[in-house]
Structure formats: C-alpha cells, structure tokens
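Postdoc handover notes: sequence design on the structure in folder B. Input tokens:
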C-alpha cells in the first residue's frame, strides 16, 4: 500500500513539475497515464475496503489544493465514478 501511494505521489509531483515548466510531452506519450491508473487503483481498493476513507480523502484534498487543472478534474472524476 505504501509503495502504491508513494508511486502516485511521485507521478503526480512529476506531472505538476511538467505543467509548471510548460514543456509539452510528445504525442506518443500519454500525459499522466501512470498517475491516472494509480488513482483508479486506489479508488478500487477503497471500494473493496482494503484502504480507509481517510486515505481517499487525502487524495481528493490534494487534487483540490491549488488551481484546478483539466488533469486534476479528470482524476477527480475517476475517483467519483468508481464510487
């Protein structure tokens, strides 16, 4: 569990850094696919009651922190649709 959350944090931070430097990735590389997949994994683990709601609230709170970007809204939709 700790590895999944740490991996999500790493990919999400890297995505924020990429957006801050405004470097566009190549068309072959989907933006934030690993981060998106990890959010869905965490949501499904919550559905199966493997993780507590506190962790999901922390993920949602982190997504709502700061400016809402298109990718953050997409991740929030993935979390809410899996509930």
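Designed sequence:
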């Amino acid at each position: 569990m700790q590895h999944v959350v740490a991996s999500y944090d790493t990919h999400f931070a890297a995505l924020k850094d990429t957006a801050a430097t405004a470097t566009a990735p190549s068309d072959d590389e989907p933006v934030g696919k690993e981060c998106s997949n990890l959010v869905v994994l965490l949501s499904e683990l919550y559905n199966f009651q493997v993780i507590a709601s506190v962790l999901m609230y922390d993920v949602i709170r982190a997504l709502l922190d700061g400016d809402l970007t298109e990718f953050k809204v997409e991740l929030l939709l993935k979390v809410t649709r899996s509930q």
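Context for whoever picks this up: Residues 2-21 form the longest helix (20 residues). Don't rerun without checking with the PI first.
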